[in-house]
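yo, Sialate O-acetylesterase domain-containing protein is done. seq:
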Amino acid sequence: MLFRLPALVLLVLATFLPSVGFAQETADVFILSGQSNMAGSGRKDQVPQHWQEAVPNVHYWDGKSFVPFDPMQLNLNGKDRFGPELGFIHTLGTLYPDQTFYVVKFALSGQPLHAGFHGGKWMGEEPGPNRNTFYPGQSADDPNMGNHYKRLHDQFSAALAALTESGKTPKLRGIAWMQGEADAKQEVSANNYDQSIALLKRRIEEDCASTPVPFVMGEVLPHEPALERYTQRSEIRQAQQDADMRSGSSRAISGVWNVPTDGLSLLADTVHYDTKGQLMLGTSFALGVLEAENMLKMLADKANSGK
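structure:
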């Protein structure tokens, strides 16, 4: 019961959030990606009974096909570990039990987003080919597209193709991103993280042939003081906060929703979330996607009304 969403909370959320709606003639897809905190350090042997239950209306991409989401049977991060997908899927499935969703997760521990990296090595600010980074390139044919983004692209492209082949029309409904620790090690990548996020959001949408969708990201490195290697902790967290569509900053990005992580429980390394922290993070991601989509809809309605 410790981590279970109270029935009253779910009732209140369902009252305010369902105006977003999900069209069931399409296959509603969510992409979850990032580095180690997306891969996950939650332990299945510590998960309370409620969270162990299968979620029949959510299907999870196992790398080859979509399968019913059964968290105790699926390989989420090895046999015994899980990431924020567990809280994300349980929350979404509970709020909308009569609708079907499809989730694709791809994560690589310790890996950067900015084009200047090649794995853990900083190569300089300018992009270069064949680097181990999530840098998505400026276009689909950009020769400097990072190797990690290519692998992410392969996963969600195969998942969308499988849905199409099954007679469904896939539609991207949201992106959850948990990454940034690697980018907090360099001044350029940290200060320009909002720009990296804007590009990543745009490129995933383009590669999914999607209209703009909510992009929720977890604020990195909540523990203070941070470990010495994270020299730009303050800068990257500020960039994340400014990128939030609600921030009022000139760096705000439409559809981007920053999820605060201060107070989420961590492992002893002070970087990775423990079992409870992962469940809370995933729940926050799910609610953030719904809230961001609701806000985007209200802004669009306001613009269309001429107000």
